[in-house]
Amino acid sequence: MIQPLLQIDRICVSYGDLEVVHDVSLSVAEGAVVTVIGANGAGKSTLLNALIGLNPSRGAILFGGNSISGNALEQRVKSGLGLVPERRELFADMSVLDNLLLGGFRRSRAERNETLETVLQKFPRLRERGRQLAGTLSGGERQMLAMGRALMARPKLLMLDEPSLGLAPRIVRDVFEILVELRSSGVSILLIEQNARSALKIADFAYVMELGRITASGTPAEISADTRLVESYLGFGKNTY
Amino acid sequence: MGRYRNLAPVVAIAILALPFSGLISDFWISLLSNIGIASLVALGLVVLTGVGGMTSFGQAAFVGFGAYTTAVLTIQVGLSPWLTLPISVIVTMVGAFLIGAVTVRLSGHYLPLGTIAWGISFYYLFGNIAGLGGHDGLSGIPALSIFGHKLLGSRDYFVVVWVILVLAIVATRNLMRGRMGRAVRALHDSSLAAEAFGVQSAAIKLAVFVYAAMLAGVAGWLYAHFQRSVSPGPFGITAGTEYLLMAIIGGPGRIYGAIMGATLVIVLRDQLQSLLPWVVGSAGNFEAIVFGAILVLLLRTATDGLWSRIFGPPSPPQFGSSPDGPTEPSIERPEPGSPLLEVRDLRKVFGGLVAVNDVNFSAPAGRIVGLIGPNGAGKSTTFNLITGVLRPSGGSVLFRGENVGTHTPQHMARVGVSRSFQHAAVVPDMSVVENVMLGAHLRGKASMVSATLGLDRAEEARLFAIAKRQLERTGLAGVAMAPVGSLSLGQLRLLEIARALALAPVMLLLDEPAAGLRVGEKKELARLMRELRQEGVGILLVEHDMDFVMSLADHLIVLDFGTGIAEGDAHAIRENPRVIEAYLGGVE
């Protein structure tokens, strides 16, 4: 069996004494789009932040066959993990180009300029807006800039935290189409989404997360057919409280 | 302080007796008088900068106000120094009120820069007014006298200085542990929360500014009669910076730290001046360099201030018990089911983004209404529009029939709307119970004056009892006296609710109260909310935990992209295809 690109085994993440992600295991195969879907508060972002190294976690993280669980954030980025954070977190007072160049901060100048060219080819919109301040972009453009900035570091695995957030359905479709293109250019993708239906449409494999646990996994077709998916978002109607 | 609390009076008496012990020389006695005078100014800064977060470099100018007022009135008008004391204080306070009314509004770096600006300008003003003696100043200021006995000796004067200092310490301590003190501390850390419980931030900041200036004015009066002459030099920006340094070295917000800081700065400077030429062997300005280096080291090593370094963090104040006062107010709540909050065509636009798009709903008394929707749907913005934190771009908010759409958070608190915050907005350096007492801010009346005089004890005991009662209701009674920093995430959420209840609300707005709670804690919270509903409190709840909100809410409103897309009971909402689409994404 081929070693998956990313494999995590029984990850737990806590804030203080409160554990919010419990024993989560998942894997991302090379060249695949894998999605983790679930309602707000399920612990998806917390899990992603733990993978990139923003939150401390317990458990094993193997990336490209090497354990990175002891590595600091910058080392994880260097080894090929890239994060497009929730709410994009752009440098609003800097130009689009400067935002992109910062994404390739660790690369040499020649390499950076070369990558910039390929990123701008992927996002012609960003080339048009190059001198504009990031804070003046529309929601969809911001999301593209956040993705472009992450790609500037030439990640092997691009992890996206809710790229559809706040975007109109038509724009969500555009953004997800770009993800499909990225996969065909060889980037593996871990997609955290609340917008389950859009994510399932492009994913090769899906996990459902609820209250800090993975409660279902399978192909998009299997997950879509599962009635529990709606329940995981809108509650079980059992009057637990 | 804790175990040192009872030592304070003993130490005070020991210090006052010091000059008559024959142990120390006249030189040290006058040095100690200078320390006492500087401590008064630093004490004001401990309140202004350390507690209130307003950094002032210009405090020396207020010392000048006090000093020049008494100098002119005693020399040129011939008034008695004791008569000029109140006049000096009033002149300083009026001056501070006028300056403060302009400067205190400044935020961020602009406030300290503003204080530097007037700190410099008053120095030149004092030096350029002929009536104040120009840069040479005024001399021949009469000494103080008591019952015909002139206080000429440094030992006599020492007693006057330190008696006044002790009085100022007592007044400042009283002020800081009372209702206004809590408001000032809260403003510094979380002005949003303070204002949501009715704290008038602008007025309180100005009052603190005037209080700090008053202490500086008293120090100026003391200084003038001690030196018997005044000139602009000691009232300039250099002196202002030194006073600030004294307050910071001692530790932000630490009253005795002011004295410690003043002692350190004055003794160090003086001793270095006499020691260094002897060590280095030439008369350069080495003391300034060494003085600076030592201060940098002190600031580096004791970031919380020296006082905290040595004596530990402050202990929470003690409150008396209040056997008779009722802890639940006899407010009349509207009939359950009668209209309470009505939101009509509410709209908020940020630049080109419509965050809240003509939203309509109502929340009656004695009902729990849930406001739900995916991330970014505009729920928190709606909350902020209702509570007066944001102004609507259109539409109206009616509370008990009154249009409150453009009112302040303080007004909303006064009409009985209380809230919790999504990210616990507590005051970290106060105890749990004091944070809850902040919620009862509007249920007390004590002014700053009555607080400094210690006349607010009965009221404080009552507010304490109110807070204790709400802590019992939320299951936090066991940690009432603990510092907020020691609480878990779940306990912090409950603390937010206890604080909201301390206002005695007619309506309660809870922003994700169940986030971070364990199952048992959620059950406890649900029980409490049902109890409140029973009492007729109207509850509006933003919550992501669907099982929680659907079990509790009588009625649900669903927002998506700022627009209301559905409302109804839990069953109807769960079946609604538009709601499912909003949460899970569209089926194309």
Task: Explain what the structure shows.
The complex is a heterodimer of chains A (241) and B (588). With 241 residues, chain A is an alpha/beta fold. Helices cover 38% and strands 26% of the residues of chain A. Chain A has ten helices and ten strands. In chain A, the strands form two sheets. Chain A has a six-stranded mixed beta sheet with strand order 6-7-8-3-9-10, sandwiched between helices. Chain A has a four-stranded antiparallel beta sheet with strand order 2-1-4-5, covered by helices on one side. In chain A, strand 7, helix 7 and strand 8 form a beta-alpha-beta unit. In chain A, helix 3 runs parallel beside helix 6. The longest helix of chain A has 16 residues. The radius of gyration of chain A is 18 Å and the shape is globular. By secondary structure, chain B is α/β, with parallel strands linked by helices. In chain B, the strands form four sheets. Chain B has a six-stranded mixed beta sheet with strand order 10-11-12-7-13-14, with helices on both faces. In chain B, strands 6-5-8-9 form a four-stranded antiparallel beta sheet, covered by helices on one side. In chain B, strands 1-4 form a two-stranded antiparallel ribbon. The N and C termini of chain B lie far apart (67 Å). Chains A and B meet through helix 7, helix 8 and helix 10 of A and helix 20, helix 21, helix 22 and helix 23 of B.
Question: What is the fold-level CATH name, i.e. the topology of the domain at 6-91 and 155-234 in chain A?
Answer: Rossmann fold
Number of helical elements of chain B: 23
Oligomer type: heterodimer
Question: Which two chains share the most extensive interface?
Answer: A-B, 33 and 34 residues
From the 3D coordinates, which CATH architecture of the domain at 6-91 and 155-234 in chain A would you assign?
3-Layer(aba) Sandwich
